Amino acid sequence: MYTVLGVLQVIVAVVLVFLVLLHSGKDAGLSGAFGIGGGGSQLGGGSMVERNLDRATVFFAIVFVVNTIVLLKI
Predict the structure, then answer these.
(1) How many Cβ atoms sit within 10 Å of the Cβ of residue 22?
(2) Is residue 14 part of a domain?
(3) Which pLDDT tens digit goes with each residue over 2-16?
(4) In a domain, 73, yes or no
C-alpha cells in the first residue's frame, strides 16, 4: 500500500508542478507558450480556461496534501 501511495504522490507532484507553471503571471509565463495566457479570446474563453486551471490546481494540491498526511500516518 505504501508503494502505491508513494507512486501516486510522485505523479500528483509532477502534475501539480505542471499546473502551477501553466498559470499566467505578469509575464504570462509558460501559459503563453501553450496559448492559455491572457489575451481575450472569443467570447471570454480565456477566463473559463483560467478558472478551470485554478480548479484543477486546487484539486491536485488538496490530493497532494491528503496523500502526504496518509503517507505519514502509515
Answers:
(1) 20
(2) no
(3) 999 999 999 999 999
(4) yes
DSSP for residue 37: S
Summarised one tens digit per residue, pLDDT across range 55-73 is 999 999 999 999 999 999 9
d(CA 41, CA 50): 12
Quick check: is 66 in a domain? yes
Q: How many domains does the chain contain in total? A: 1
Domain for residue 68, yes or no? yes
Asked if residue 43 has pLDDT above 60, the reply is no
Range of the domain at 51: 46-74
Is residue 38 within 8 A of residue 46, CB to CB? The reply is yes
Q: Which three cell numbers stand for residue 13?
A: 507532484
Q: What are the cell numbers at 8?
A: 501516486
Grade residue 47 by pLDDT with cuts at 50, 70 and 90.
Answer: confident
